[in-house]
Amino acid sequence: MSENILRGPSVDYIPSTTLGQYFFESAKKYEKRTCQIDPFSDHHESYASVRKRSTRVAIEMQKRGITFEDVVVTCSSSTIDTAIPIIATFYLGAKIANLDITLSVRQVTHLLSLVSPKMVFVEESAIGLIEKGLENASLETEIVVFGESSKYSTFSDFVKFQETEDQFEPVVVDLEEIAVILFSSGTTGLPKAVCHSNRSILNFAFFFCNSSEHLDVILSFSSFYWITGVLFLTSTFIGGGHRVVCGNKVEAERTFKVIEKYKVTYMFIAPILSYHLTNFENYQSYNTSSLRIIMAAGTPLSTTQFNKLITIFPAVDIIVCYGQSEVGMVSLFDTKFDKKFIRTKNKSAGKVVTGITLKIVDPETNQIMGPYQNGEIRLQSSGVMKGYYKADSTEVFDDEGFLKTGDVAYFDEDGCIFYVERLKEMFKYLSWHIVPTAIESVLLEHPGVKEAVVFGFPRNEEEGEVPAACIVVNEGSNVSENEIQDFVSSRVSDREKLRGGVYFVEGILKTPTGKVKRKEVRKSMLECLTK
C-alpha cells in the first residue's frame, strides 16, 4: 500500500542552529533591508533595528531573571512591536506562547495555568483580561505593557540602550528544547499546549518556503496566537523579505491601499475575512498588480467566493491550504509545479508540501485508504510538534509514529488533498474552532440546567455555523432562554455565544453508555427548525 502514502519533496538545506541564533544571524545578513512596515505610520523598520531592539529586550529580560527554562507570553494585536519580545525570547532560548486578545477570561485562565509564564507582554486594552486570568490561575507573573502604564513596566522601558548590547550573543540551547508553545483547538474540551522545538519551527518554516514563491512582501492578518503568525515571521528571516503589519482586522479599502502602496506580493487571509474584499465595490481604483499569491486557510473556500476573488485579482494565484498547529503547513499547491491545478481544483487543499509524509487511514482499522476514500489524515515530519506541554501525548501518535490529526480527507489520482470534516465534533464559526463541550461545561454550571448539548447551527457561507444548545432543565426550574443566553455570554468569548438559539427539550439522545449522540441531536433539531 506504499503507493497510497503521499510524500512531499525533500529540502536541500535546513540550518542546525537554534531559532535565536538563526534570527540573530539573519538580521545581520539582511541588516540594510526592511524587515517590517507599519502602514498606519508609514514606518519602515530595518532588520538592523529589529535586531537592536530585540537584543535590548533580551538583555532586560535577563536582568529580570528570565532563563531558557522559562515561559514568556504575549497578548497583543499585531504591531511592529509585538514581534520584538518574541524574537528576544528566541535569543534567550526560552519558550514563547501567544494569546489572542479576543479570548475569554475563562480561556485565558486555562491557557495561563497550562504554561505558568514568568513574564507577560500585553497591550493596554487587554491588561484587565491578563490580570483576571493570572488571578484566577493563582500566578505571580510580571506584566509588561505595550503602551502606557503607571502600574506596570512598559515595553519602552525594555528597548532603552543597554551597555552590553554590542557584546550580546544568543544563548545556545539544545535544538530539541521547546521554543514555541501554540494552543490547539482542543477536540474534546479546552485547548492543549502544543510544543515546538527550535528544530521543528525551523524545519516547517523551511518546508513552507521551499514550496512557496513570492514571499518578498507579506501581508497577513494573523496574530501570533496562530501558527501562521509564527510561520510568516520566520519566513521573512529565511528569505530576507518583509511583513506589512496591519493588525488583525481586515478593512477592505485600507487593504487595497496597502497592497498598492507597499507592493505586496503575498497575502494570507482566512476565507471568512476575504468577504470584506469581495464586498468592496471600488476595488478597480487601486493598482494591485504586485500581488502574486493569495493564500486562504482555516476553513474551505467556496467555489463562488473563489471566483469572486479571481474577478478582483485576475492575475493572482489563489491557493487554499491545509495545516495544523501540531505540524505547520501540510498541503498547498506549489505555483512552480502545480499551476494547472490551482484553478481547476480550487476545492482541493493542494499537494503534500516539502518534508511531509501523509497517509489517510480508516481510524477504526488503521487500513490505508486509496484515492477517493475518506479517512483520517495522519502524517510524519521533522516539523511535527514534540508533544503537549506537561501532558501525555502518546495517544496522538499511531504505532508507526504518524501524528493523528483528527481530520477527515481524501486524495485523488493526482495526489491532491480534499478536506472533508473533523473526525470529532467541533465546528467552525468565523474561522474559529468552536468546541461544544467547552460551552456545555458552562451551561452545566447554571443551577437550572440538568443536561445540555451544543451543536453548530448553519448560518450562512460567510459565517459558517453558530453555536446553539438543547437544554434539559431541572425539575421545578423556570429558567428562560434570555437568562441562559446572558449566563453563557458573560462566561465565554464573543464567538461562543449561543447565536443559534437555546431550545428546551424533555430529553437528549444518548448511547447505551450515556454518551450524547451529538450528530443525531443536531440532525433532529435542524429538521424541526427548518420545517
Describe the structure.
The chain is of the alpha/beta class and 531 residues long. Among the domains are: 42-174, 3-Layer(aba) Sandwich (Rossmann fold), CATH 3.40.50; 427-529, GMP Synthetase, Chain A, domain 3 (2-Layer Sandwich), CATH 3.30.300.30. The strands form 6 sheets. Strands 8-7-6-4-5-9-10-21 form an 8-stranded mixed beta sheet. Strands 3-2-12-11-13-14-15 form a 7-stranded mixed beta sheet, sandwiched between helices. The chain has a 5-stranded antiparallel beta sheet with strand order 1-19-20-22-23, with no helix packed on it. Helix 2 (47-63) packs across helix 3. The longest helix has 17 residues, at 47-63. The radius of gyration is 23 Å and the shape is globular. The two termini are 47 Å apart.
* Strand neighbour order, sheet with most strands: 8-7-6-4-5-9-10-21
Strand content: 25-35%
Cα distance spanning the termini: 47 Å
Structural class: alpha/beta
How large, in whole angstroms, is the Cα Rg?
Answer: 23 Å
Helix content bin: 25-40%
Oligomer: single chain
User: What are the low-pLDDT stretches, counting only 5+ consecutive residues below 50?
Assistant: none
List the helices and strands and how they pair.
Layout: E1 6-7, H1 19-29, E2 34-38, E3 43-46, H2 47-63, E4 71-75, H3 83-91, E5 95-99, H4 105-115, E6 119-123, H5 127-136, E7 142-146, E8 153-154, H6 155-158, E9 178-183, E10 193-197, H7 198-210, E11 217-220, H8 227-239, E12 242-245, H9 252-262, E13 266-269, H10 271-278, E14 293-296, H11 303-312, E15 317-320, E16 322-324, E17 328-332, H12 339-342, E18 351-352, E19 357-361, E20 375-380, E21 387-388, E22 403-411, E23 417-422, E24 427-429, E25 432-434, H13 436-443, E26 449-460, E27 464-473, H14 481-489, E28 502-504, H15 518-529
Parallel strand pairs: 2-12, 4-5, 4-6, 5-9, 6-7, 7-8, 11-12, 11-13, 13-14, 14-15, 27-28
Antiparallel strand pairs: 1-19, 2-3, 9-10, 10-21, 16-17, 17-18, 19-20, 20-22, 22-23, 24-25, 26-27
Helix pairs in contact: 1-2, 1-3, 2-3, 4-5, 7-8, 10-11
